[in-house]
Amino acid sequence: MTDFQLSLLIAGGTSLVGVVIFNKWQEYKAKKTVENAFSDGHDDVLLNPDVPTTQRYEPTFDDADPVVESGREKDTPSASFEENDDIAEHHASISASAHDAHEPAPSEINAPVETAAAPVAPLRELPVDELIDCIIPLEFDTPIRGEKILTEIAELKYVGKKPVHFIGQNDAGGQDVIATGGAYTTLFAGIQMVSRSGPLNELEYSEFVMKLRAIADNLNAHPDVPDMSKVILHARELHHFVVEHDAQLSVNIAANGAPWALNTLLAALEKMGFDQRPDGRLMMPDGDGGSLFTLSTNAAVSETMTSRLTLLLDVPCVAPSRNSFGAMAACARSLATRLSGTVVDDGNQPISKAALDEIAGQVNEFYSAMAEAQIPAGSLRAQRLFS
């Protein structure tokens, strides 16, 4: 080996050692940044030990606070906070139409699909719902025990991606889920007409009816099957409402300097109250088994650092009383202060307090429109439709 080759080898080794040392130093700085951020005595906006996580918080602003920004993400281009007057008007009278004797017009989205039996009692949140399910009654000549019915319906839980549910009616006219030991004169089968994946289609409806006819034959029941064209039209109209009200809000925290070490950050976020989900996102619980909003680190599995966090609110799935938007904005500001970051929208642009207040107003209008349509945000109906 010549002196020149030896010098090149030494120089290369020195450079490699320098790169390794630099990377270790960067990781050390990122870890210390997060450790310092969560150990300096700041009060948590959401998780003060004296305040439960379900406490409502309104975002506040002063000169010392960073500017809070917010962006909106939508699953479809037509999703917005603007109220669709036609759909809202259609839905407003759903409860009044539940027991009407006249045949509903196909264009009335608020009317239940034509059946021969009275639909589910509106005051109870049973798994079969006249507004969002196509309900087919199966009447028995004599009462049938719940255990026999459960055996027959055990395999019918989904048709395609649409969930199927059942309830029964007893001799006294009461309706409830099918239970062992009960006796029922009528079985109501409901297939959900809409989800975020789309409306019920002809193929799914035909398969649902075919499987129900087989169950009816085994139970000596008499099914009353609605006209397919009316069911499909109703499903498409309801899907239009879902599209118009499928909205999500996000705020992002961007690092002002060096990125943050993920292992230290995740541990700190869990101490702050976030629960980690199997998909890697962190969820801020609402205290009743639900979610206020989620947090994503925007990092791949193999990455050890991140320079951006995203808080996401699934607007129609959280009740207005939770004030989830205010809580999410407050959490973003707290994280930005702790981590020396900046709260930004999806385009990395700041947003003024006035713009944030405008978004909060749009959220309230959105909630009002859903309530008028008899699909309140955060209700069982809303959570099923926007699943």
Q: How would you concisely characterize the structure shown here?
A:
The chain has 9 helices and 17 strands. It has 387 residues and is α+β, with helices and mostly antiparallel strands.
pLDDT < 50 stretches: 42-123
- Strand-residue proportion: 15-25%
**Broad shape:** elongated
Instruction: Tell how many strands the DSSP assignment holds.
Output: 17
CATH fold description of the largest domain: Cell Division Protein Zipa, Chain: A
How many domains? 2
Major sheet attributes: 7 strands, antiparallel
Explain this structure.
The chain has 387 residues and is an alpha+beta fold. It is built from nine helices and 17 strands. The strands form four sheets. Strands 1, 10, 12, 13, 14, 16 and 17 form a seven-stranded antiparallel beta sheet that branches. Strands 2, 3, 4, 5, 6 and 9 form a six-stranded antiparallel beta sheet that branches. The chain has a two-stranded antiparallel ribbon with strand order 7-8. A hairpin with a 5-residue loop joins β13 (282-285) and β14.
Summarize the topology.
Elements (H helix, E strand, L loop, with lengths): L2 H35 L33 E4 L10 H7 L41 E13 H8 L4 E2 L2 E8 L5 E2 L6 E10 L1 E2 L2 E2 L2 H18 L1 E3 L4 H17 L2 E9 L4 E2 H11 L2 E2 L5 E4 L5 E6 L8 E2 L1 E7 L9 H16 L1 E4 L8 H20 L7 H6 L2
Antiparallel strand pairs: 1-10, 2-6, 2-9, 3-4, 4-5, 4-6, 7-8, 10-16, 10-17, 11-15, 12-13, 13-14, 14-16
